Amino acid sequence: MPIISIDSLSYAYPDGTEALDTISLSIEPHEIVGIAGSNGAGKTTLINHLCGYTMAQSGSVTISGSHVTKDSLDTIRRSVGVVFQNTDDQLFMPTVIEDVSFGLRTRGMQAEEAHASALRQLKELELGHLANKPPFHLSQGQKRFVAFAGIITLKPEIIVMDEPTSDLDPRHRRMTIELIKRLTDTTRLIVSHDLDFLWDTCDRVVLMNDGRIVCDGNTHDVLADKALLEENGLELPLRFSGS
Length: 243
Prior knowledge:
By secondary structure, the chain is of the alpha/beta class. The chain has a domain at about 5-90 and about 160-235: Rossmann fold, CATH 3.40.50. The chain is built from nine helices and ten strands. The protein has helices at about 45-50, 75-80, 95-105, 110-125, 140-150, 170-180, 195-200, 220-225, 225-230, and strands at about 5-10, 20-25, 30-35, 60-65, 65, 80-85, 160, 185-190, 205-210, 210-220. The strands form two sheets. Strands 6-7-8-3-9-10 form a six-stranded mixed sheet, sandwiched between helices. It has a four-stranded antiparallel sheet with strand order 2-1-4-5, covered by helices on one side. β4 (about 60-65) and β5 form a beta hairpin. α3 packs parallel to α5 (about 140-150). The protein is globular and about 50 Å long. It starts with a strand and ends in a 12-residue tail after the last helix.
């Protein structure tokens, strides 16, 4: 059974702008799926439906067999972890260790156990030395990995990443690729304009334009199709620039 099932999902904003137009999509457990598209294609609106930040006006979204409704939000948000594009929207506690353990505490874990679990996760990501630092003292790359740590420690079935390389230097970009590939127990959904990053990480790419899915296929087949990309406001990955 798909871990994510979207059936004829449509959504329009109050001003009448149609953000999603009868989207249907199935994602299997443990897949790494990229969602690509130019600005305004509907990517962010789509992923907002997966974690219940936005509710379907028409059609349905099902996560691990549970329909996304107002009554199921607690269940859904235990299944889906989101790494936001802007880490400052995600990191808000006085220290890194408090940030990473925050989600565990809200789920009822005792402070000492939550602290120990968060510290283990930070050490796994080679961030243990940052545990007592304020998040606002960190580099953008460090902030990104602390945000990942806070999500990973909750052990969600699905991790959604919104533009995870938007503010990373080459080293942290490479580390992010390696981390995503290691998270084999989770389904990973990546929204990104960085087509080279999707090329390096994803099994499959869903291409969106004007609120619709225009292509869904093997990553390298989709992202090597110059005509398809240009028709939908994108360009070939940079790796093709010398060819």
